[in-house]
Amino acid sequence: MRKKRIGFLLSVLMAILTLFVLGSTAHAKEISVSGLDANSAQVYDKNGQLMPPSSLLNTTTSYQVTYNWQIPDSEVLNAGDTVTVGIPANVKVQNNVSFPVVDADGATIGTFTYKAGDPTGTITFNDRISGLQNRHGTLTINANGNSTISGDERSIAKSGSIFTSDEAGSPTTLFWHITVQPGNNPTIVITDTLGPNQTFLPDTVQAYLVNVVNGMEVPGRTVTPTVAVDGNIITFSFTNVTSKLVLNYRTKPENVDSAAGNVWHNTASLNGLDVATDADIVFGGNGSAQQDYSVRLTKHDADTQAVLASATYDLQDSTGKVLQSGLTTDANGQLIVEKLAAGNYQFVETKAPEGYELNIKPLTFTLGTPKTLISIEVSQDDQKMPVVPATGDVTLTKTDATTKKVLAGAVYELRDANGKVLQSNLKTDAAGQLAVTGLTAGDYQFVETAAPTGYELNATPLPFTIKAG
């Protein structure tokens, strides 16, 4: 049965570091850390399958090496301090790599470096995370296996590497290497599909057959393929292939970015063989750091500054998206939100304490600014609701004592129960009525001060009561 062979992923590092960080100052030293030794590494294949520890891994196959690490809070971290990353023995990283490790703001907090062939890599920190705590994260390395595993009689395999670099270490040419076991077919056609961001260099094509001398493979006669280029698809045609074939050529990389990292991909297939082989050249990498932040809100009375319990808030992001709801101040007038990433946030009050008006103004704050505190304090005041007394209305109707005809032009005073004049010159209208509104609960009286024309003054007080509710 034919097996698909995957060309090996050139071993380079791609790091994603998550730091949750508080520090002080001391001399540069090796930091105590858990999870970054070779035995703690977990190796996954391209399909995400976890490889058993110490398993033999093929040199033509790519893998991901993942670490979960933590620095104890008791460990003081200072500028120049380093962390060692152990590389498992069953994988190989072949390129020199150096890239910055950054925090949530994109600021560099350290540098990851690796020298091809070494058993370890190193993270060197600067002083940006001095004074931080709760430091843990992950590190992922792209690598190849470290064992040669024999395959089918007829096969194709591909690998790649950085061939030359400039003074800054950025690649200037890439090297692609293809091996073919021809089986009984002397006519070989290799179809090679270049991934983006690279240009084929036709003058760099070299090919030869392999001889076996005293059990060792050595280069044999040179062979020259017919080369056809159609966009990013390159076809190499060979005849009279009698033994293992080796094909090498180079490409020019484009859009090189050492900080963000590059992956140059290539796929090769062999005529008559229903499989393809993939290879990647990976350059650079990236590191990032994040940090837990917390915020404490204190609620006050706007006038007395007394703390207020039972104020309820939503936590929103800067766009108004609700991240947490039902956050309520305690007996100390406080609520605390922890484990927040850097960013812009706002508290929005959704329910005011009893007897207070709702404060709908968003309380904005920012976490993760340079040298920000891990925990910040914010506060907001609420105004007491105004005391609105219960009020009532009254309407007086003036009529003729005998005919009950309504009488206009009667003039009254409104007095309280003690006779104090509250309003005067209140006159009945054409309907014989006068009205007073907005009276608080209590006892009142109307007293006529001028009778309608042709009528006697009735000075007897007319009492009434406004009741609450």
UniProtKB/TrEMBL annotation:
Pfam families: Big_8, SpaA. GO terms for biological process: cell adhesion. It comes from Lactiplantibacillus pentosus (Lactobacillus pentosus). Its main location: secreted. The keyword Signal applies. This is SpaA isopeptide-forming pilin-related protein. Residues 294-379, 392-467 form the SpaA-like prealbumin fold domain. It is found in: Secreted, Cell wall. It comes from the Bacteria. It is a peptidoglycan-anchor. Keywords: Cell wall, Peptidoglycan-anchor, Secreted, Signal. Belongs to the serine-aspartate repeat-containing protein (SDr) family. InterPro entries: Adhesion_dom_sf, Fibrogen-bd_dom1, Ig-like_fold, SDR_Ig, SpaA_PFL_dom_1.
